[in-house]
Write a structure and sequence with these properties.
Blueprint (H helix, E strand, L loop, with lengths): L1 E3 L5 E4 L2 H11 L2 E6 L6 E5 L1 H18 L5 E6 L5 H16 L3 E7 L8 H14 L4 E10 L2 E8 L3 H29 L4
Parallel strand pairs: 1-4, 5-6
Antiparallel strand pairs: 1-2, 3-4, 6-8, 7-8
Amino acid sequence: MRLVGPNGEQVGIVRVEDALRLAGEADLDLVEVAPNARPPVAKLMDYGKYKYEAAMKARESRRNQVNTVIKEIKLRPKIDDHDYGTKKGHVERFLRAGDKVKVTIMFRGREQSRPELGFRLLQRLAEDVAELGFVESQPKQDGRNMVMVLGPAKKKASARSQRRRSQERAQGEESAAGAERAEQAPAG
């Protein structure tokens, strides 16, 4: 078998018994890396340490992974301007936070015969939030509903870090203002 040392150096082709003896002397494990190679390749390593480091890498990659959240907003075709503004504000907040937004327009009764009203409303919403997000899936009729998905312009991680920086800046200004007020207060 071909033997690789603990630091990645090539030891050469040795018998299995010799490889096991070398592993025992170095207090390491003999791990077969490529069993199908000719000759098979084995490496001297601390297998417990290797497994631990692999688990830590996997855990770190899971922590850095961003899970996308889809928020949903429901509208009706005959929505009032003020109500539309409120719903648009919610959509803007979700997009700023880096979340996707699923906008659903629910049709009832005779409204189902006028899907162009819902389509126009979704187009208007997409134009109003164009600087914060983009249309990920175009409006499409789904039974009694019309659905459109908006994606954020910024990734969730960058939105989160930007929010954290602005909060830290606000706290710094707040503590500076508090210290200034304390200096100006009359001693008494």
